[in-house]
């Protein structure tokens, strides 16, 4: 009996509003790819991202376009050249990983050498707002060990100081979402160093970040929009200290594992990040993040409801997935 591929769109309400410098949303729209064979099904979830030119309809079309090849036995390795990196390939790739694990009885964790079942600390994201609101949000979450704050405005200093004052003991990641400029980045870096910020993510726009190779990086800088796949890494060594690996950028766990190994070889710190999605999207990323510097896998914590049987979160700890969810 051949394999069968299906793709569905699902929506999950966000708890309140999630805001970054590029806009706000109140709902997480995800696409789930399911590949079945002989009564066994594997699933993968992706989140199309408009910043990279992706739409729900376009990603759905890309997934369905490989359905005949999947039914004919296309392998994960063959998938890497059959589809371009991005959300669509991520959903298909992770569905294949899940199907293979369920068919073989060998977990994905065992297959990739991530067999430790210890939980990892994930960052908890504070949405962009005014300084008072962000300070209050930080105060409510001050016991979390790692906070990530969304910035990228004309007045990030007041927001930074409000958050640090409200959460004096937390490690803090700043995500500027390409919102800083050549005119203000050195000032922002000085303030970040003063406030003991641990990491700054994508301060300048992708493609316009060469200045990072010429200035003193007082706080480690992490590439996000500037890095998508393994091929990008070597050109970023002079301007970034860390890279954010997201499965929706790499196009799945298969490429992410290659990228992680190469990033480690090149000496980058590694963050494993996510879009705002459910536990199904986080599950493979939790395994990928087992021995990295930072995990930013709080997507389900930002939702008003997760899918049934989701990941186990205890505060900022996230546990590896159970086989019933994924892998």
Automatic annotation (TrEMBL):
Q: Which cofactor does it need?
A: Mg(2+)
Q: How is the cofactor bound?
A: Binds 1 Mg(2+) ion per subunit.
> Active-site positions, per UniProt?
150 (proton acceptor), 246 (proton acceptor)
Q: Which CDD domains does this entry report, sorted A to Z?
A: L-Ala-DL-Glu_epimerase (cd03319)
Q: Which family does it belong to?
A: Belongs to the mandelate racemase/muconate lactonizing enzyme family.
This entry's Enzyme Commission designation comes to: 5.1.1.-
Q: What is this protein called in UniProt? A: Dipeptide epimerase
Amino acids binding Mg(2+) = 175, 201, 224
Q: Which domain of life, per UniProt? A: Bacteria
Please name one Pfam family that this protein belongs to: MR_MLE_N
Enumerate the InterPro entries for this protein. DgoD-like, Dipeptide_epimerase, Enolase-like_C_sf, Enolase-like_N, Enolase_C-like, Mandelate_racemase_C, Mandelate_racemase_N_dom
Keyword field: Isomerase, Magnesium, Metal-binding
A GO molecular function annotation here is: metal ion binding
User: Taking every annotated instance into account, which residue ranges of this chain make up the domain Mandelate racemase/muconate lactonizing enzyme C-terminal?
Assistant: 131-222
Q: By its UniProt entry, which NCBIfam families does this protein fall under?
A: racemase_DgcA
């Amino acid at each position: 009996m051949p394999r069968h591929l299906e793709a569905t769109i699902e929506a999950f309400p966000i708890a309140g509003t999630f805001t970054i410098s590029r806009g706000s949303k109140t709902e997480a729209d995800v696409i789930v790819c399911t590949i079945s064979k002989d009564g066994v099904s594997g699933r993968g979830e992706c989140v199309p991202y408009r910043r990279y030119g992706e739409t729900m309809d376009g990603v759905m079309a890309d997934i369905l376009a490989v359905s005949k090849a999947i039914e004919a036995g296309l392998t994960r390795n063959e998938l890497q050249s059959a589809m371009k990196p991005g959300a669509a390939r991520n959903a298909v790739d992770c569905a294949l990983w899940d199907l293979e694990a369920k068919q073989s009885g060998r977990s994905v964790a065992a297959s990739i050498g991530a067999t430790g079942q210890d939980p990892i600390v994930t960052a908890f994201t504070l949405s962009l707002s005014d300084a008072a609101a962000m300070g209050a949000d930080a105060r409510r979450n001050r016991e979390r060990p790692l906070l990530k704050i969304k910035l990228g405005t004309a007045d990030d200093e007041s927001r930074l100081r409000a958050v640090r004052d409200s959460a004096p003991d937390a490690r803090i990641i700043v995500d500027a979402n390409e919102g800083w400029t050549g005119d203000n980045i050195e000032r922002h870096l000085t303030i970040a160093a003063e406030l003991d910020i641990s990491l700054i993510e994508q301060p300048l726009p992708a493609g316009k970040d060469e200045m990072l190779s010429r200035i003193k990086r007082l706080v480690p800088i992490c590439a996000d929009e500037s890095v998508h796949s393994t091929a990008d890494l070597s050109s970023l060594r002079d301007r970034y200290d860390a890279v954010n690996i997201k499965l929706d950028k790499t196009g799945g766990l298969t490429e992410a594992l290659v990228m992680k190994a190469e990033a480690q070889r090149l000496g980058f710190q590694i963050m494993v990040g996510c879009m705002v999605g459910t536990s199904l999207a986080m599950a493979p990323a939790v395994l990928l993040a087992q021995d990295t510097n930072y995990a930013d896998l709080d997507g389900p914590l930002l939702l008003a409801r997760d899918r049934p049987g989701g990941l186990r979160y205890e505060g900022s700890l996230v546990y590896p997935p159970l086989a019933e969810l994924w892998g």
